[in-house]
């Protein structure tokens, strides 16, 4: 259902508030550049420091700006199942096409707890749902066997697999086949994961190079492997640079250098250090982005 290059879009701030004008402009640029979907209120969108009111507004604004031209998959996860259900219900009411649901963080549920969490959301809200596994952020790894238990449920249509393991992605594809769409959760692993059956990526890099990320995916899926591989190698330094410091610090800094928005963050995230900013700027210059 959701394939291609789907951008995990940043949330621009200005003087402590969501910068709706900059946000709308970013969405329009993404659509014009061939991005296949917008994912607001994820990790890259600083969902952890958005109030519920802001979270709801950002999702609604995304839907309003997109106007049905491409899918909107709203971040709606939480370490509280009840809260995740509430956010997913709001995503549906706002007109989103789907919800992205991160594994519960900090409380580190068992595999049975993960299964029950996602089952409860799928049964509570009739909206396509994409699981999101990123153990480096959450402290828990959702195993392929657990994903296999979930992938037959009506509303569970995909997974953003961010474990960093191509083998784990391969196991999920093998277990779930056509019942679940696997999307890469790491830009650098988009190409390797598509080689084992993934259908795209939920990407940080597309915030800066939307047309290139869309082409990386589309050329591979259309059988033009060498072209896709060439894009992968050209963008590899950028993939690394976007994690010189905690995401989304570098991508917001880069968008600021590109003149797309004010690179404002919310504590406890803070501006890039001088050395890493200089390194990031060098990568952007090599790609003619600044």
Automatic annotation (TrEMBL):
<feature type="binding site">
    <location>
        <position position="202"/>
    </location>
    <ligand>
        <name>pyruvate</name>
    </ligand>
</feature>
<feature type="site" description="L-lysine inhibitor binding">
    <location>
        <position position="83"/>
    </location>
</feature>
<dbReference type="InterPro" id="IPR020624">
    <property type="entry name" value="Schiff_base-form_aldolases_CS"/>
</dbReference>
<feature type="site" description="L-lysine inhibitor binding; via carbonyl oxygen">
    <location>
        <position position="48"/>
    </location>
</feature>
<keyword id="KW-0457">Lysine biosynthesis</keyword>
<dbReference type="GO" id="GO:0005829">
    <property type="term" value="C:cytosol"/>
</dbReference>
<feature type="site" description="Part of a proton relay during catalysis">
    <location>
        <position position="43"/>
    </location>
</feature>
<keyword id="KW-0704">Schiff base</keyword>
<feature type="site" description="L-lysine inhibitor binding">
    <location>
        <position position="105"/>
    </location>
</feature>
<feature type="binding site">
    <location>
        <position position="44"/>
    </location>
    <ligand>
        <name>pyruvate</name>
    </ligand>
</feature>
<comment type="pathway">
    <text>Amino-acid biosynthesis; L-lysine biosynthesis via DAP pathway; (S)-tetrahydrodipicolinate from L-aspartate: step 3/4.</text>
</comment>
<feature type="site" description="L-lysine inhibitor binding">
    <location>
        <position position="106"/>
    </location>
</feature>
<dbReference type="GO" id="GO:0019877">
    <property type="term" value="P:diaminopimelate biosynthetic process"/>
</dbReference>
<dbReference type="GO" id="GO:0008840">
    <property type="term" value="F:4-hydroxy-tetrahydrodipicolinate synthase activity"/>
</dbReference>
<keyword id="KW-0028">Amino-acid biosynthesis</keyword>
<feature type="active site" description="Schiff-base intermediate with substrate">
    <location>
        <position position="160"/>
    </location>
</feature>
<dbReference type="InterPro" id="IPR005263">
    <property type="entry name" value="DapA"/>
</dbReference>
<comment type="similarity">
    <text>Belongs to the DapA family.</text>
</comment>
<comment type="subunit">
    <text>Homotetramer; dimer of dimers.</text>
</comment>
<dbReference type="GO" id="GO:0009089">
    <property type="term" value="P:lysine biosynthetic process via diaminopimelate"/>
</dbReference>
<protein>
    <recommendedName>
        <fullName>4-hydroxy-tetrahydrodipicolinate synthase</fullName>
        <ecNumber>4.3.3.7</ecNumber>
    </recommendedName>
</protein>
<feature type="site" description="Part of a proton relay during catalysis">
    <location>
        <position position="106"/>
    </location>
</feature>
<keyword id="KW-0456">Lyase</keyword>
<comment type="function">
    <text>Catalyzes the condensation of (S)-aspartate-beta-semialdehyde [(S)-ASA] and pyruvate to 4-hydroxy-tetrahydrodipicolinate (HTPA).</text>
</comment>
<feature type="active site" description="Proton donor/acceptor">
    <location>
        <position position="132"/>
    </location>
</feature>
<feature type="site" description="L-lysine inhibitor binding">
    <location>
        <position position="79"/>
    </location>
</feature>
<keyword id="KW-0963">Cytoplasm</keyword>
<keyword id="KW-0220">Diaminopimelate biosynthesis</keyword>
<dbReference type="InterPro" id="IPR002220">
    <property type="entry name" value="DapA-like"/>
</dbReference>
<dbReference type="Pfam" id="PF00701">
    <property type="entry name" value="DHDPS"/>
</dbReference>
<dbReference type="InterPro" id="IPR013785">
    <property type="entry name" value="Aldolase_TIM"/>
</dbReference>
């Amino acid at each position: 259902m959701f394939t291609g290059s789907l951008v995990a879009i940043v949330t621009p701030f200005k003087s402590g508030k969501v910068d709706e004008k900059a946000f709308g402009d970013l969405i329009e640029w993404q659509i014009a550049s061939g991005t296949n979907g917008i994912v607001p209120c994820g990790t890259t969108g600083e969902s952890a420091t958005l109030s519920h009111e802001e979270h709801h507004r950002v999702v609604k604004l995304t839907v309003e700006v997109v106007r049905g031209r491409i899918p909107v998959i709203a971040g709606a996860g939480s370490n509280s199942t009840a809260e995740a259900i509430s956010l997913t219900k709001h995503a549906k009411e706002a007109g989103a096409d789907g919800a992205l649901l991160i594994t519960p963080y900090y409380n580190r549920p068992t595999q049975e707890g993960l299964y029950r969490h996602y089952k409860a959301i799928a049964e509570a809200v009739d909206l396509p749902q994409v699981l999101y596994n990123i153990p480096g952020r959450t402290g828990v790894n959702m195993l392929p066997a657990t994903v296999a238990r979930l992938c037959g449920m009506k509303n569970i249509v995909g997974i953003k697999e961010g474990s960093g393991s191509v083998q784990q992605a391969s196991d999920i594809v093998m277990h779930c086949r056509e019942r679940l769409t696997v999307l890469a959760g790491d830009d650098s692993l988009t190409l390797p994961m598509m080689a084992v059956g993934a259908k795209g990526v939920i990407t940080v890099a597309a915030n800066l190079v939307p047309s290139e990320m869309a082409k990386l995916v589309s050329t591979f899926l259309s059988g033009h492997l060498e072209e896709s591989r060439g894009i992968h190698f050209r963008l590899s330094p950028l993939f690394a640079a976007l994690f010189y410091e905690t995401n989304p610090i570098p991508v917001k800094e880069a968008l600021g250098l590109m003149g797309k928005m004010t690179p404002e963050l919310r504590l406890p995230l803070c501006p890039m250090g001088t050395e890493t900013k200089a390194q990031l700027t060098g990568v952007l210059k090599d790609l003619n982005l600044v």
